[in-house]
Write a structure and sequence with these properties.
The structure is a single chain. The chain is 13% helix and 51% strand. It has a single domain, classed as Sandwich (Immunoglobulin-like), CATH 2.60.40.1890. It is mainly beta and 159 residues long. The chain has one helix and twelve strands. Pfam families: PCuAC.
């Protein structure tokens, strides 16, 4: 019985540590930025993208208006639009975070576009990304680089 309790305690401790390691959230005033991540670069890809969920606990909306990172020559806020039968990426001037409706940045939707990567994004790495909001101000988050093989919504992709 003692061995079972010890084994169970060990498993629970490992699970708690793994959960804490995966959940990296940031707070800026009334905004919460949850799990910023990017896919590892495929080969010598010149561009990449960062994703996350941004929510507000406040009573007014805010807007992500700018992003910067030293890993890319240029950083833009983007979305995908359906143009006929083709999905196309387009820059947007901002990403709104409404009360009760988090902004979900994900593959195939809104995202932070990293243009002109200075070096490939490597799985297991991290990089800084500075987010500027219209009302809340600026916060720098660490973006986790995850496996390139993560599922992605199917699309035909053109700029």
């Amino acid at each position: 019985m003692r061995n079972r309790i010890l084994a169970l305690s060990t498993v629970l401790a490992v699970c708690a540590f793994a959960t804490a390691a995966l959940a990296h959230d940031y707070t800026l005033g009334e905004l919460k930025i949850e799990h910023p991540w990017a896919r590892a670069s495929a080969g010598a890809a010149a561009n990449g993208a960062a994703y996350m969920t941004i929510a507000t606990t406040g009573t007014t909306a805010d807007q992500l208006v700018k992003a910067d990172s030293p890993v890319a020559g240029k950083v833009e806020l983007h979305t995908h639009i359906l143009d006929g039968d083709v999905m196309r990426m387009r820059p947007v001037s901002g990403i709104t975070v409404n009360v009760g409706e988090p902004a979900v940045l994900r593959p195939g939707g809104l995202h932070v576009m990293l243009i002109g990567l200075k070096e490939p994004l490597k799985q297991g790495g991290q990089f800084p990304l500075t987010l500027t909001f219209e009302k809340a101000g600026t916060v720098t988050v660490q973006v986790d680089v995850e496996a390139a093989s993560m599922p992605m919504e199917p699309m035909h992709h053109k700029h």
